[in-house]
Structure formats: structure tokens, C-alpha cells
Amino acid sequence: FALLSFILHAQAQQYDESKVPAYTLPDPLTTLQGQAVKNIRTWETVRRPEIRRLFEDNVYGQMPKDFDSIRFTVEREDPGAMEGKALLKETRIDVYRSGRQVSIHLVLFVPKNVSRPAPVFLLINNRGKNNTDPDRKVKSPFWPAELVTESGYAIAAFHVSDLAPDDKTDYVNGLLRLYPEQLTADNGMKAIGAWAWGASRVMDYFEKESLVDASRIALAGHSRGGKTSLWAAAQDQRFALCVTNCSGNTGAALARRQFGERITRINTTFPHWFNNNYKKYNDRENDLPVDQHMLIALIAPRPVYATNATKDLWADPTGTFLALKNAEKVFALYGLRSALPATPPAVNVAVENSILGYHNREGEHDMTETDWRHFIRFADIHFKRK
Ligand code: GTR
């Protein structure tokens, strides 16, 4: 009984808005020395590096970039894919360090009726590999390649397991074999760091691929993949736009609200996602030197689109909206307008014409064609404006 009640207690998460405690968020525009950040220069030279470092040390871990070499090998090219409407290119990205190697398999469809180089939606795929079927026998709404290419974008995907298996023991058998020193450091990278690292190596490839426009890469991820898309875009400023779908705790939702999934719970179920230091914040959200609005702020001035689903309270829709709102002032430094209302928009109402976009779709924890239609419109607005 004692054990059972312990388990039930440990798993009890709350969904009651009236029980959200009073909290004060760390100010993205006040430096650790207490200086107010009033211009882009201080933001970019002092405060932004400071926040990035805080996330590295306390949450996601380091992002090493000292590899020996990178090689791109075309594994398959089909100019007649999607009934002749697109070019399919599958590429293996091999990265070497100290005699060890990691390989990322990338699937890419480039529409034919669009002027090249094409803008791209890149998905960090955390679900089954068949969701991104290059043969299109499976047409998953999670990666609606036909819809995206018909809308004038190339679409690409890689699978997280190429970098780190999503398993609390097995996660070491991937990229971390190249960086074993990360495993013994309290601020060492684990699985989510490794997945984000992989997104950057795909970007290295895009920079060399003449079919695509490396200055218009929209990075997208769902849930744990959405936590990763935020961290990758925060780290790597080459990503021009970030989509974070139902990313919840340690994604786009504020930790201090303690609503839905909490840090203790995520660190217990998924001890292989975040660094060792993050475990110090179990049940101590208020001691964190950051909150997730600051992760969104790191992406400024690049546009960020976050979503939720009404039946996914676990991912705290209100906390996600509030994280965006509290990041607005950093985008404002760049003179960028956020059209987010003061309180969350009505269900299914998308805010797209805004540097910070948002919708709360009716339904379950998922990424659907409806979500993608909004991502496309959001990218249309921002990429055209460029
Ligand atoms: C859940 C986890 C969430 C989210 C989700 C997913 O079990 O608690 O943080 O990442 O998985 O990735 O679908």
C-alpha cells in the first residue's frame, strides 16, 4: 500500500487552473548582473549568450560541434516521385569524430512546379519511420508530404533514432559514442540534445544542396520532437523559422505553472532526455534560472509557431500561450510585431500574421493536416516578407 500510494502521489499531476501557484518568471531582458537590456546589441552580445548557457547547463546539455568531418552520400534519386510532381532525394549524412561515426538518413521531396532553390519544412521525426515513407505507400497526416509540396515547399525528415535511440538505457548508442565525455558531465547532452545536433547536421547538408534554399528552412517537431525543434532553433540560428507542436513540458510550456506534466515526472519517465543538472529542479521549478519563454526568446528575431490541442492538457495549452506572450518583448527589441491577443485565442482560431504564432486545435495530442495547413500559412507570410 505504501508503495502504491507513493506511486500514485508521484504521478498525480494537476489540471486545475485555480491550483496554479503564484510565480514570478525570470526576466529575459535583465542580465545576471541586473542590467536592463534595452537594445539588440546588449541582447545579442550579453543576455542571449547568457540564457543559452543557462539552458545548456541546467536543462538540455552542451552542444559540441568539434567533429572531424561530414560527408553527404546520395542513396537514391527519383525524378518521377509523387506521380511526377516531385523529385525524391534520399541522402546519408555521415559525421566522423575520433574514428567513430554516426549516420543520418534524410528523406527529401522537392516539388517540380516551384522555382528553386525551394524553401523547406524539415521534420524531426519522433514517431514510426513509416510516417515519412519515401515510397508514399503510407501517407501519414503527421508528415503530409503531398500537401506541403503542393503548397510550394520542399519537405524533409530524419528520424531521431539515427542520433539517439529514445530509450533510457540505449540512448547512449548513437551520437554519444562520438562524444563519450558528454556522458560523465552533469551538463552533458543526452537524447534531446543529440536529436537537435542532428537537425544542425541536416542544415549543414542543406547549405550544400542547390535544390533547397538554406535561408528558408522551417524546422518542425511534435511533442518530444517539438521540444527538440525549439532547442535546435535556439542553438542554430541558420533555421529561419521554428514550429513546436504540442511540445508541453520543457518545450513551449512554462514550467512554473506546474500544470499537467511537471519536471519531476518528465525526469522520472524520461531520464535520458535532459542533462543531469535538470534533475535538481524536480519539484523546484521556481529555482530554475530560466523558464520556457526564454527558450522561445532565444529564437528571436526568427518566427516561432506553437500549437496545442484541447484534449492535451498534459502539455498545458495556457502555459504555452503564456510562454509566447512572455517572449514578446525580446521580439519587440527587433521592432517585430506580435499579434497574439492578451488572452488565449478561441479554440481553432489561428494567429498566423504575427512573429509569434499560435493555435489550440480541437482534439488530441497529435500533429494533423489541420496543424500543417497553419504552419504553411505562417511560413508563407514570413518567407514572403523576407
Ligand atoms: C509524453 C511526454 C511528453 C511528450 C509526449 C510525446 O509521454 O510526457 O512530454 O513528449 O510523450 O513525445 O508524445
Report the uncertain regions: none
Instruction: Name the beta content range.
Output: 15-25%
Distance between the termini: 61 Å
The share of residues in helices is: 25-40%
Biggest sheet, spatial arrangement of strands: 1-2-3-5-4-6-7-8-9
Q: Average the pLDDT over all residues and give the rounded result.
A: 96
The Rg value, from CA coordinates, equals 20 Å
Please give the largest β-sheet.
9 strands, mixed
Structural class: alpha/beta
State the shape.
Answer: globular
Order of helices and strands: HHEHEEEHEHHEHEHHEHEH
Give the helix tally. Answer: 11
Please provide the count of β strands: 9
Bound molecules: beta-D-galactopyranuronic acid
Description:
By secondary structure, this protein is an alpha/beta fold. It contains eleven helices and nine strands. The protein has helices spanning 2-11, 40-60, 81-84, 145-150, 181-184, 191-206, 224-235, 263-269, 292-298, 317-333, 369-385, and strands spanning 69-80, 86-97, 100-111, 118-125, 154-159, 212-222, 241-245, 304-309, 356-361. It has a nine-stranded mixed β-sheet with strand order 1-2-3-5-4-6-7-8-9, sandwiched between helices. α4 links the parallel β4 (118-125) and β5 (154-159). The longest helix has 21 residues, at 40-60. The chain is globular, with a radius of gyration of 20 Å. It starts with a helix and ends with a helix. The relative contact order is 0.13. Beta-D-galactopyranuronic acid (GTR) binds at residues 126, 223-224, 248-249, 261, 266.
